Amino acid sequence: MQKFNSVDELVNTIRPVEPIYCIRPDSIKSACGWFRNSFPGNILYAVKTNPNEKVIRCISENGISRFDVASINEIKLIKRMLPKARPYYMNTVKSREHIEEAYNNYNIRDFALDTKEELQKIIEATKGAKDLTLYIRISISNEHAEIDLSQKFGALPGEALGLLRLAKAHAKKVGLSFHVGSQCMHPISYSKGIREVGNIIKKTKIIPDIINVGGGFPSIYPDLNPQPLENYMSEIKKAFDNLKLENKPELLCEPGRALVAESGSSIVKVVLRKKQKIYINDGTYGSLFDAGVLNFVLPTRMISNGRMTSKKLTSFSLYGPTCDSADFMKGPFVLPNNLKEGDYIEVGQLGAYALTFRTKFNGFYSDKIFEVHDKPIMSMYEKDSTSSYLVA
User: Fold this and answer.
1) Cα separation of 351 and 263, whole Å?
2) Which helix H or strand E contains 355, and what residues bound it?
3) Per-residue DSSP letter, 110
4) What is the mean pLDDT of the chain?
5) pLDDT for 307
6) Could you read off the pLDDT of 89-147 as tens digits, one per residue?
7) Tens digits of per-residue pLDDT, 64-85?
8) What is the pLDDT of residues 314-337, one digit of tens each?
9) Which residues of 8-29 are buried (b: 16+ CB within 10 A; e: fewer)?
10) Is the previous residue joined to 332 through a cis bond, with omega within 30 degrees of 0?
11) pLDDT in the model for residue 385
């Protein structure tokens, strides 16, 4: 992978015609270090967020050797790259064949479930194995999340009581897990989840070996400015202590977006300006899914390529290159008013899901990836003395 000191150096050196993607290993290092120093337990990287091999290797090199995987192919990826790593099969719905393959061929022993039927499937596919760690995922409110996951996953707390008892009878270890939803904007969601875990413990008299608080830890965007991550950790620690358990369970978390969002950005080229509509060579069917489908406002900046940028700023909407009118990103994306055809724009906070959701619709696809070592446009980790977050 070719390396550059900065995005500006990259653009001014190669003048790309197609959109290009940039990875910042330094950002991943900062995020991994922060979580290792701040979370009172073990950290699983959610592979689905960004399965790029450079990203995964960087996460491993920075002290995270456990991985939340959702498919047999993610298991194969991790085991091929990092044979000593420990993947956890945390998708609550898995095919019988994939459970069997994961257990027999890849030494997977950690499985999540949220129904009696899935538990039965795991028991049968592993031929009644006695070395399993089974996690009962409970459904909790996702009210503070930008993306609600509660409708698809999780057993209702009443259902979880019976599931925990059944799992305890068949597993070497049992865990209780929950997920507060993606891009959770308030730390109280974690304490509510842990309190629900506490209610299940009281009713079943079963103290789980593991409590998994899931993912959902946020990143920062122009229109989504969460509380400092320290507040999330404080809420988790306080709620965990309030359980007043004599034998403390192991704590797990599954960050994805918070570890990698800042590390990625896309460099796009302006193809046409139509007043406040900017047509670019990447879009919703490419690396900008979050901006189009989820309406996230992503940080943007015009890249200086030898000409002056206007101090006057204008709010733009972006349009991708495909023939589909849904290839549209409302924004607003605030950029210099003199933006025109041929200019380059860096779109930030794309380390999470940008590479995962790309398609080849209409033949528009670019797999050009470079390494850069400048700071991201926005950061949760790069603090200065005057504000909670550094905006580069």
Assistant:
1) 5
2) none
3) E
4) 94
5) 76
6) 999 999 999 999 999 999 999 999 999 999 999 999 999 999 999 999 999 988 888 88
7) 999 999 999 999 999 999 999 9
8) 999 999 999 999 999 999 999 999
9) bebbeeeebeebbbbbbbbbbb
10) yes
11) 24
Q: Quote the CA–CA distance of 162 and 120 in Å, as a whole number.
A: 13
Chain-centroid distance of CA 373 in Å reads: 21
Positive or negative, the CA dihedral 373, 375, 376, 382 is: positive
pLDDT (tens digit per residue) in 288-297: 999 999 999 9
**Best CA proximity match to 271, nearest among 81, 96, 17:** 17
Distance CA 189, CA 144 (A): 7
Assigned token pair, 98: 């994939």
Which residue, chain included where needed, has tokens 């550059």?
4
Cα separation of 55 and 78, whole Å?
12
**For 32-61, what is the mean pLDDT?**
98
- Residues whose CB falls within 8 Å of the CB of residue 14, separated by 6 or more in sequence, listed in order: none
Closest CA relative to residue 380, chosen from 207, 257, 254, 206: 257
Above pLDDT 90, what percent of the chain?
A: 91
Mean pLDDT of 248-257: 97
Which secondary-structure segment (H or E) carries 186?
Answer: none
The pairing of strands 133-137 and 173-177 is: parallel
The span from the CA of 153 to the CA of 302, in Å, is 40
Q: What is the pTM of this model?
A: 0.94
Chain centre distance of CA 145: 13
| 201-205: long-range pairs with CB below 8 Å, 24+ | 201/176, 201/243, 201/245, 203/161, 204/161, 204/164, 204/165
- The Cα–Cα gap between 26 and 54 comes to 12
DSSP-assigned states of every residue in 24-86:
-HHHHHHHHHHHHHH-SSEEEEEGGG---HHHHHHHHHTT--EEEE-SHHHHHHHHHH-TT-E
d(CA 357, CA 320): 15
Q: Worst-scoring range by mean pLDDT, 77-86, 148-157, 265-274? A: 148-157
- pLDDT class of 383 with cuts at 50, 70, 90: low
Under 8 Å between Cβ of 336 and 314: yes
Measured between alpha carbons, how far is 111 from 99 in angstroms, rounded to an integer?
Answer: 9
Residue whose C-alpha is closest to residue 380's, from 10, 130, 32, 11: 32
Handedness of CA 347, 350, 351, 356 (dihedral sign): negative
